[in-house]
Amino acid sequence: MDVSTAVAAPPARSTRVKDKIMATAERLYAEHGFANVSIRMIREAAGQRNKSAVQYHFSTRDELIQAILSRHAAAIDLHRLPMVAALEASGEVTLRDWITCAIAPSIEHHIELGTPSWYGRFLAQAVVEPTFREYAAQATLSTPSFRRLELLRPPSMRDRALELSERQAAMIRLLVVHMSAELEADLAAGRAAASPEQAWRSLGDNLITAVCGLSSALLP
């Protein structure tokens, strides 16, 4: 058979069910919060009659939530990798270059998800939930692209105290996550004046400018 014309086999039923459970859980958690969604609600909303369907794929609720976070982090990583490669090749990285590379890939991912989407509101729940806050941060920071990006920090960022750097990172993370969640909700409700792509790109530009200003203000 000519591999160039071969049709890819459809995903196995088990994979389709797992994907359906993850997508359903993400939507329900985004709409109702982690505390208000049970495994039973997820199973029923995902159309699974087997009472153990969710537990078959995810032994615990925490494992399910972590899997959703990891899946999105991996997708964002694919957008960031070529941007990091371009910065590595440039030989000189400004503060704005670095911040753009940190923020823009998530904006591209939101555009890629389409409307309606639930990742922004799901992530907003995770970053303020003590159980998942650290995992949500590390899901991004541990990706190959972000580890490479860390090595490209401009001198002004490398020289600051660790405590200041951590405070800045927390402020930036909350700003980016919650503004993205608000726009996602506005788009889903039809409250945004611009098209989804225009709205996301405008938010991305505004966030990059805001974070540059915040970073400059926090420089020692």
From TrEMBL:
The keyword Transcription does not apply. SUPFAM superfamilies: Homeodomain-like. Gene3D superfamilies: Tetracycline Repressor, domain 2. The keyword Transmembrane does not apply. It comes from the Bacteria. Residues 21-68 form the HTH tetR-type domain. InterPro entries: Homeodomain-like_sf, HTH_TetR. Keywords: DNA-binding. This is TetR/AcrR family transcriptional regulator. It comes from Nonomuraea spiralis.
